[in-house]
Amino acid sequence: MRVALRPACRTRRTMFRCDMYFPKGGLRPLMQNETISPANGSGTPEKRFRLKPFLRGEYAVAPRAARLVLVIYALLLLSRLIDRAFLSREGEYLSTVLLQLLIFPIPAYLYIRLRGKQFVPALRLRRVSLSHILIILSAILLLAAGCTLLAMVCGMLNAQTSFTLYDTFSSANDGTAGATVRLILTYGVLPAFCEELVFRGILCAEYEENGILYAMAVSSLFFAFLHFDLTALPVYLFAGMLLSLVLYMTRSSVAAMLVHLGYNLFGVLAQAGLSGYCRSTGNLGLLVVLLIALLLLSAAVFCGESARVLRRRARLRLTDAPDSQQTPGLSALSAREFLPALGRAFFCPEAMLAVVLWATGVVINLVR
Question: Do 34 and 147 have their domain in common?
């Protein structure tokens, strides 16, 4: 058996590769890709970066999910190459629906098939309980008020003349009942289902091995990057975090879909009028006061209902009552480990390429 001995004194830091080494706690095998530094006298293993494990995604957390995000970002950027005149013809709604199906549900379905049937329960595609109705309604109001206030702070609200998806598909309503129904289905229902299936269903399930906070942070960042808008990044980060909270409070991604749908309906039916009011009115004080009041009221209801749900779950755990819908812990990481672990989620070729595609989309938006 070969061992690595620590010299009493060395003026130069030296790295040894061996099968075993003597740490303070005793003898243990040297793990793969680990080295020791006898110069510091601690015997603490150090991680050496190696290219092949990096290319295999061994340094990253859940690189499979990053591949799905990369495919979605790439398809979304490619959809911008379609002639906008084609989207403004009679087949506007049909083409928008087909493109959304191609970008989100089809890659998500293939991903779920590759993961196997055992992955389906992790998506939390459960019916919504009546006890969670107040959480859903308050979350819709909180999302609408919070995103509107953030949009005003970021200077976005005055520039919006219609509801836009990913800065590619722009809604238009001629006022007829048929057009309104098509508008709601195309720009309200379908995006809510598609985005929540991917970002709250798949991504949260893949990244929650490190806890709820970690899964919320990673999925919300990927969700914010999806829209290729640097100015609106705080808006989508807030939306992603709130939708993730709804997912874990209700243990149902369907509830997150309903909240997302409610916000999309607000955007489709009221955003253009709100933007016109902001452009035509110089004094926005009354609107800001109303939005802040709505924000605080809905936040109070949401937090109160969430606390009630958490107390009920705590009682079930204390009484050992059966609770088949288990929720992962808040965090499996310490405060010091959280940010490095968050960085490792993007430390794989797929995630890095996804970030590059996001930066490309941002540059395209700025140049146009």
Answer: no
Q: How many domains does the chain fold into?
A: 2
Q: Mark 186-221 as b/e (b = at least 16 C-beta within 10 Å).
A: bbbebbbbbbbbbbbbbbbbbbbebbbbbbbbbbbb
**Which residues 6+ apart lie within 8 Å of 81 measured at CB?**
none
> Can you tell me which residue has the tokens 């709820």?
212
> In the beta sheet, which residues pair with residue 237?
none
Q: List helix spans (H) across the chain.
A: 51-55, 63-79, 84-87, 92-103, 105-115, 133-153, 177-184, 190-196, 203-207, 212-225, 233-250, 253-280, 285-318, 335-345, 349-367
Together in a domain, 229 and 127: yes
Q: Which residue has the tokens 């993961």?
A: 115
* CB-count burial class (<10 Å; 0-12, 13-18, 19+) for 330: exposed
Q: Cβ distance 280 to 154 under 8 Å? A: no
Which range among 36-45, 140-149, 327-336 shows the weakest confidence by mean pLDDT? Answer: 36-45
Q: Which residue bears the tokens 């107390």?
A: 311
Mean pLDDT, all residues of the chain:
77
Top-confidence residue, 298 or 26: 298
- Smallest CA-to-CA distance from 299 within 221, 238, 367, 351 is with 238
pLDDT per residue over 203-231, tens digit each? 999 998 888 899 999 999 999 999 888 88
Domain ranges, residue 220: 61-367
The rounded distance, in Å, linking the Cα atoms of 144 and 294 is: 9
Contact 354, 67 (CB under 8 A): no
Token pair in block for residue 118:
């055992």
Q: Do 250 and 299 fall into the same domain?
A: yes
How far, in Å, CA of 20 to CA of 67, rounded? Answer: 36
Q: Please, what is the Cα angle at 299 between 293 and 305, to 5 degrees?
A: 140
